[in-house]
């Protein structure tokens, strides 16, 4: 066993920050050294996150960072790039959960976002989706945890590339359904309970920025559309894939087994009996699991791939801790062993 | 004003039957003469449908049909075809809400269902989606009200055919999200509250039977996938369309305006400000409205079409009453004027 | 038929204002002359309330009131008292939906609220809960529509006073459950979807201001506690009543029948079979109905009275229109005939 | 560290059985030796409980019990008493989660239930609500885990007895709100998603059997009413208490601190700022925590006590594992350390 590693969470009062704090609190190797929040400075973590009421730690000023082993930045997009020097001064390993360092080049960044303040870090940072590129992470000093919707999509499609079923020029439609936690803790009118309950609401019909991450990763241009539905946690990606040649069920099973049989956080759910026959966000709620499954639609020469994650976990905080575990040489699953509930509602 | 017309509902204790009874109760021209239910015979309508507690009518035996002007059959698939002679003996106009008479030929039927007991009626019956084919309905003696998911899809795509934007050989993916009322009143394990709440659950990944109706109507083979989400009423179809040539926003607006500007039950919602920028099931809950909207995705040469209905209304009972109104020469909107609530949850 | 009456809604962009506009739009006797909103001035009603997209009316400046037959004020507590003179200049009949004019005296007001700016109106205004005091309304020029939680409670308990079962010094606990629309359209953190979904949250443990209305009406001091639960519309009051002597089921049925048998908006639901055995907010969602029911608990010498309303309707906008109907000599049920849906979720 | 203890779950396919299996799977001292289910015999645990898909264990025939260290019986009421001899043959320690052995005498049992088949066990068994009576559990061979609604109530009220604030003859109303998992996995019409969503439904207006447990424990006769609300997990008890003399906030804080300051599973939430000011089922969802809080209502001489638990955890499976931990001399919190999520919906 290693000595305990100290960890800081910048942006600790948001939903993702709170999830990081929960994971770090239960992690066998990390200890929470600092959690920052401008708005809640000097208040207890539990005053914002009721599940952390048992902790004495209080939020502190983000401009006064302590020296730690690892710093997790859970701030809104555009904030980390302003403070990256301070973050790197404070910690050898910085894991950023925003989109600030996910893309590889300033050119890509400018295509999807507005002007990066420190583009030289785009190339230096490591994107983290450990199932796909864990080999890049050990020793990395700046890690950009993959985005939730991109993660769900890439986990569903990457095995098809590795197995040669997809090559990159196929038609692919990705129809994503997400919960309200993706919007974060800062509520606006559209996210009030009365307006947001019971919705099937197109909120990113076209041009969602996660297309960029997917394209960077898979070399595939996807037609991407996101709908808000009535759940809190969860992202579900349904990928409608049109391969150039015939693909059998056996080919598909082979592809996913090859990619995921040894993965500690990946589960297959494809057909079979019972209530939970395909991947569902409910079935992975609160966990760092990703579930994938599929059907073959020969009459339309289509593959339908389903992928489900908890956007707060595999889609952000869990992925960040997973990446930190790999980067620091810890057990990959440390602090992420929870396997989920049944029954469970709209968590 | 015409004299009151007498109406019967066969299968009155189911969800669709109850919605028909509600509509007939509030309809200026119809009077409920009979509502049948084997299970609830002699009980009041209100013992099953709490919104009908003010009525004295009791369910009666379905084998003892009264003579009425119009008979609505809200029975499970496969039942109406067994009783069609009795239905036609009882009423000059029969409106069937099941899939029994929606397809045009025995060949089509056998492709999607198992053996029709009276295939001669397939050709004789009139499919009803009044916005598209109201001219066929006056005087029809057997009307098959269009299915909910097919209706949502056809309402979204038909204007593109009429405007020449689609011709029938394009790639089209339809990703549908539906509420729990589609499963009907007979609850199984998968539809219990604890299992069904908060789901994004693929329940018809491929081969959904409504593909047949869509193909019959549009001459288009669609890649169709249905997900259960957490709402009671509502069907939302997102159509990802890949036209052969460039299509502008203006072309799209033109197509929808041309088709729907004079339609009493169609609303456009496409962009603009506010919370409700695109079609949403919530916004049409309880109404006979269909909402359509779209975005153009030039980078993927894609059109994204959104269509939302209340599956209990525009997708079944409302559509049936609308069709009966047209068939019998009544005001089209009679009994269907309700415009919806705000705010409203997961109705 | 009378000539159409012109109506204005001040505060038309809020939830209650929107509900008023919906009711007035469907009302056979009223015509919407004006809807005000500072925030949405010059925007269409449909830009805020999607169910009103078919209307051309736009919000106008609240400082520029038109002359109308009836003005409904749906502004936050404390606003109407600032503008009451302008309201009365604009309309012969003013119906206020806030708490500003519900109490009878400045003394009472100061006990529960902070300083009234025009206390002379407290005595002059008429409180409106038409089932209880419709005789006061004809010709009234300032009407204060009863509050939602008070209405639910008073509807449940008043018949027990009228029948002599209660006299005013009994122990009564009222445990109320309400939906998120009670909080209004201005969302704060506690009402965001992620924080508000799935709650059973004590939000007014003691000292809820509606106690004042109840006491004024019934002469009874009740122990009142309000919980937020996961629905949008609806208020459910469970009254635990400890009468001084024995009370039978027959006594209870007699009391409610005597009070409500001729009431167009009251329904009894007390025992019997089926799913909906007692009053439920779902069963009255969207309607102006109140449902009441009860059980007798002899082992605890207790009566349990259940009362359910839609807080947006019988608890505010519907009650206001009902009161206006009575005040202006119209049919009581005009514009309020909707009987509700089945199935229906968490509307 | 002790050697691993073997555990069996009889009735493993139900909701409570699944929760037990989840807890045992993650427990450092127990190993799942057997899970029985007549209906799902030979199927994997994961075919019913998707969160257990990683396990190879299959359900086995309940008539063929293995010899284990501890047997948990999660069968419907009335089943365990039929099989208690077989259970005791199979295991030295039997923990029953039904109501079969909760009451102390045949007389009590017959008052609330129908005829006990082995009343001699009523006296011999130990009721388990460890915060209240953990001293009885070490070495017990038959333990009856306390019922969910009784547990919530007793946790809220017991400290007031210990502090002398209550003595047993006070008027106490307990208004409980529960989620749909209390109904178990066997769905009926009333628990279908369409009928159960969005409810505030009185389902046990009077005479709930948990009154018996409460009275046995506290010597207090409570007026008990249970409502179903829209959540999956969770029970919330609001106790309206009328003490004979004046009670201050300080008295209340003192009482709860005295009782619970050293309890590993009890949290206080009473006032303060933020969104989560009082106990809420959401805040303890998935955990074995109980939260209690209160307000003093001097104007009504009332105390309002709030108590919230997860009915699947502190109200059944978690309580059973907690009791087994104590009975077998393990760390009390073993396997029960999870502290909950934020945000979380209607789990």
From TrEMBL, chains A, B, C, D:
Cross-referenced CDD domains: AGPR_1_C_LysY (cd23939), AGPR_1_N_LysY (cd24151)
GO CC, alphabetical: cytoplasm
Gene name, Swiss-Prot/TrEMBL: lysY
Top-level EC class: oxidoreductase
Lineage start: Archaea, Methanobacteriati, Methanobacteriota, Stenosarchaea group, Halobacteria
Keywords carried by this UniProt record: Amino-acid biosynthesis, Arginine biosynthesis, Cytoplasm, Lysine biosynthesis, NADP, Oxidoreductase
Originating species: Halogranum gelatinilyticum
One function term, GO molecular function aspect: NAD binding
Function: Involved in both the arginine and lysine biosynthetic pathways.
Pathway the protein takes part in: Amino-acid biosynthesis; L-lysine biosynthesis via AAA pathway; L-lysine from L-alpha-aminoadipate (Thermus route): step 3/5; Amino-acid biosynthesis; L-arginine biosynthesis
Enzyme Commission code(s) on record: 1.2.1.103, 1.2.1.106
Domain Semialdehyde dehydrogenase NAD-binding: 6-140
Protein name as catalogued: Putative [LysW]-L-2-aminoadipate/[LysW]-L-glutamate phosphate reductase
Any Gene Ontology biological process: lysine biosynthetic process via aminoadipic acid
Alphabetical list of Pfam families matching this protein: Semialdhyde_dh, Semialdhyde_dhC_1
PANTHER family listed in its UniProt record: [LYSW]-L-2-AMINOADIPATE_[LYSW]-L-GLUTAMATE PHOSPHATE REDUCTASE-RELATED, N-ACETYL-GAMMA-GLUTAMYL-PHOSPHATE REDUCTASE, CHLOROPLASTIC-RELATED-RELATED
Residues annotated for NADP(+) binding in this entry: 13-16, 311
């Amino acid at each position: 066993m290693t000595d305990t590693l100290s960890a800081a969470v910048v942006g600790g009062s948001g939903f993702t920050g709170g999830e990081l704090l929960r994971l770090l609190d239960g992690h066998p190797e990390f200890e929470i050294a600092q959690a920052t929040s401008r708005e809640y400075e000097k208040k207890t973590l539990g005053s914002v996150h009721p599940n952390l009421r048992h902790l004495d730690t209080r939020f502190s000023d983000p401009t006064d960072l302590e020296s730690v082993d690892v710093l997790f930045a859970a701030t809104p997009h555009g904030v980390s790039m302003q403070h990256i020097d301070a973050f790197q001064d404070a910690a050898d390993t910085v894991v950023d959960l925003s989109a600030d360092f996910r893309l590889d080049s300033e050119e890509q960044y400018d295509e999807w976002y507005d002007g990066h303040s420190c583009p030289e870090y785009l190339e230096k940072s490591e994107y983290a989706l450990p199932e796909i590129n864990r080999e890049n992470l050990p020793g990395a000093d700046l890690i950009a945890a993959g985005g939730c919707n991109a993660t769900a999509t890439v986990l569903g499609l990457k095995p098809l590339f590795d197995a040669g079923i997809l090559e990159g020029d196929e038609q692919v439609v990705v129809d994503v359904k997400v919960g309200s936690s993706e919007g974060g803790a800062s509520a606006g009118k559209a996210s009030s309970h009365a307006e947001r309950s019971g919705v099937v609401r197109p909120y990113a019909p076209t041009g969602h920025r996660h297309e960029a991450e997917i394209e960077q990763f898979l070399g595939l241009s996807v037609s991407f559309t996101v709908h808000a539905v009535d759940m809190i946690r969860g992202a579900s990606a349904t990928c409608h894939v049109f391969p150039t040649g015939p693909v059998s069920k056996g080919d598909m099973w082979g592809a996913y087994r090859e990619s995921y049989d040894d993965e500690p956080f990946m589960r297959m759910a494809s057909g079979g009996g019972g209530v939970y026959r395909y991947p569902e966000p409910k079935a992975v709620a609160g966990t760092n699991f990703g579930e994938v499954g599929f059907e073959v639609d020969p009459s339309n020469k289509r593959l339908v791939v389903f992928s489900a994650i908890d956007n707060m976990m595999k889609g952000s905080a869990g992925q960040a801790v997973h990446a930190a575990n790999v980067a620091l040489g810890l057990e990959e699953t440390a602090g992420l062993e929870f396997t989920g509930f049944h029954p469970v509602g709209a968590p």
